[in-house]
Design brief:
heterodimer, A: 299 residues, mainly alpha, ABC transporter involved in vitamin B12 uptake, BtuC, two-stranded antiparallel sheet, B: 305 residues, 3-stranded antiparallel sheet, 13 helices, 3 strands, 73% helix
Chain lengths: 299, 305
């Protein structure tokens, strides 16, 4: 039982980073009804630029963190312009494939920057752990949970208390009506991309600082974890992204402990497949589905 | 022809199967990220039949194709309710499940003093049917292209038949199709099954061409590339995906000076192409235009006579 609780605690800590990645996907999906497959790759490019500066010019850690975030935002804007803004409105499929090829592009660019297989990634402060009763907490993971909680709070305020948030939600609700109200959709979407890239950059930095290393597989990993967490919670739902991320973290931590490494990812995909077959809207997104597509029986 | 050219041509042929498989589903309006699962299942099943049961290759291809088709139909039935992104992600989840299960599977039998069979992450070695029969690379390439031609003919005939129209109808508006009396459930499962069979044949050939397969090859990159080929080449005709494969595997592989920058060049080209041609080079309009052009020519010729 103690093992299970410890796993669950670890899962929640790590799941908070999945939740942040999922928020990136869910906001883009909310406003565009499209998926940005290159999201993970854009974070990876930002982190690679940061690490590159650290390896070659020994810049301070804070600069690495800021470069990671700034690089991710620039990559995000590039993706938005090329794969989403420029592609015709009725061609969602073309957008997705386009973001996929840009993923490959960013990944190769990153590998050219730092050709070795792994690089050490600098953390903001020295690692440590503390005990609370029978349970062990790692300091960086606790930091990640706090960072995630703060960012979710800030995002919530941004979406519900500012003009930008209202515009974003209006476009997500009904793009045509939003356009009639004089909302400049192209600009809001660009800002939304920059915003989620910033969230992604911060999440990426927190994850990599916990791992203390960066590999070329990070892009794929981040895209997959974010996508799974979003789908589990329900596409387009902000609370869903958080619940989905935490659930994914808990399931993975327990699968890892009880079944072994090779079952960790398998359990995640099995859960996702079962969720899609049985309850396509995810834990929190059924309402979003109900409004839009359940009328057509297929979702 | 030297071995390198033959290998590249064979690769184009084998990858074309999975591209056609993804293309068929694109016609019905489904975006599958998971056709590599059927390619992998076909490869493993065919390898098991020839290397472990020591049966001839046609049995291997048959078993690989049937297994892939059956599994695809089951998955198709399970995911019937899903469309759009939900469907795409479910296929991705299924394909990753297959890959991760193949990483765990250890089934080996002793054949002529050697252990042969899938060995988890180390892959499935010793699928040597081609070498035991002293088949040359050229002969095997002819086998690949023979089967590819067969699949292509079936697909082209299908596109001219009622079935082809039904598939395109599902793709443009399935509610409308259902109102026209089309049994959408049956046709969706059928399309999934046929797509699975096509990918399975490709996988069976691949296993015998490379003599060994590992789960890592059937990752999501293969599946998304297969999808991209159809979109680059065009969704108007079955030749579209082949053009896509030829551009990526053939052209970019052959041009040495962009080696190492391949994805940067290819990615940029495709992204720009999709801005101007969201349904690929040979989309429905251009195919129609080419057809009328061709028809007018032959019409004029018959008039002259």
């Amino acid at each position: 039982m103690i093992d299970f609780i410890q796993n669950t605690v670890d899962g929640v800590m790590f799941g908070s980073s999945y939740a942040l990645l999922a928020i990136g996907f869910t906001i883009v999906f909310g406003v565009m009804r499209r998926i940005n497959l290159a999201f993970g790759a854009s974070i990876m490019l930002g982190a690679y630029v940061g690490t590159w500066l650290h390896v070659h010019y020994q810049v301070p850690v804070l600069v690495v963190a800021l470069t990671t975030i700034a690089g991710t935002v620039l990559a995000g804007i590039y993706i938005e312009r090329l794969c989403f803004h420029a592609v015709r409105r009725d061609a969602a499929l073309a957008s997705m494939v386009s973001s996929f090829v840009i993923w490959m592009q960013l990944e190769e660019a990153s590998i050219h920057l730092l050709p070795e297989r792994t690089y050490a990634f600098p953390g903001l402060f020295a690692a440590g752990a503390y005990e609370l009763g029978p349970f062990l907490f790692r300091a960086e993971q606790t930091t990640m949970l706090v960072v995630a909680a703060v960012m979710v709070g800030v995002l919530h305020l941004l979406l519900h208390r500012t003009r930008f948030g209202v515009a974003l939600r209006a476009i997500s609700e009904n793009p045509l009506a939003a356009a009639y109200m004089g909302i400049n959709a192209a600009w809001v979407v660009l800002c939304a991309f920059a915003l989620v890239s910033m969230v992604g950059g911060i999440a990426g930095y927190a994850i990599l600082a916990t791992d203390e290393q960066i590999t070329p597989f990070f892009g794929l990993w981040a895209t997959f974890k974010g996508l799974i967490a979003m789908m589990l919670g329900g596409m387009g739902s902000l609370p869903g992204a958080i619940v989905g991320g935490l659930l994914l973290g808990v399931v993975e931590a327990n699968a890892l402990w009880y079944l072994g490494t090779e079952y960790r990812d398998l359990s995640a995909f099995l859960l996702l497949f079962a969720m899609l077959v049985l309850r396509p809207g995810g834990l929190m997104g059924q309402r979003i589905l109900g409004r839009e597509e359940l009328a057509f029986r297929r979702v | 022809m030297d071995d390198y050219v033959i290998t590249v041509l064979s690769n184009i042929g084998m990858i074309s199967f999975i591209a056609l498989s993804a293309y068929l589903l694109l016609l019905t309006g489904e975006i599958s990220f998971g056709q590599q699962a059927y390619f992998g299942l076909g490869a493993y099943a065919a390898g098991a039949v020839t290397a472990m049961l020591l049966l001839p290759i046609w049995a291997g291809i048959l078993v690989g194709a049937c297994l892939a088709g059956l599994v695809a139909m089951v998955v198709g039935a399970l995911t019937l309710r899903l469309s759009g992104l939900y469907f795409s992600i479910s296929t991705l989840a299924f394909a990753e499940m297959v890959r991760l299960i193949l990483l765990i599977v250890h089934v080996q039998v002793e054949v002529e003093g050697e252990m042969v069979g899938p060995a988890g992450a180390e892959g499935f070695h010793g699928i040597r049917w081609m070498f035991e029969r002293d088949l040359s690379l050229v002969q095997f390439m002819l086998l690949i292209y023979g089967l590819l031609a067969l699949v292509l003919i079936v697909l082209l005939l299908m596109e001219r038949s009622r079935l082809g129209s039904v598939f395109r109808m599902l793709g443009s508006d399935d509610l409308l199709a259902e109102m026209q009396g089309v049994d959408t459930v049956r046709y969706r499962i059928l399309a999934a099954g046929v797509a699975g069979v096509i990918a399975g044949i490709g996988g069976a050939l691949y296993a015998h061409f490379t003599t060994y397969v590992e789960p890592q090859f059937f990752n999501v990159m293969l599946g998304v590339h297969a999808l991209a080929y159809g979109l680059i080449g065009g969704l108007g005709t079955a030749f579209g995906p082949l053009i896509g494969v030829a551009i990526d595997v053939g052209f970019l592989e052959a041009v040495r000076f962009i080696q190492g920058y391949r994805m940067i060049v290819f990615g940029g080209l495709v992204a720009v192409l999709l801005v101007f041609m969201p349904r690929g080079l040979l989309d429905e309009e251009r195919v129609h235009w080419l057809r009328t052009l061709f028809a007018r020519r032959s019409h004029a010729r018959s008039q002259r006579r």
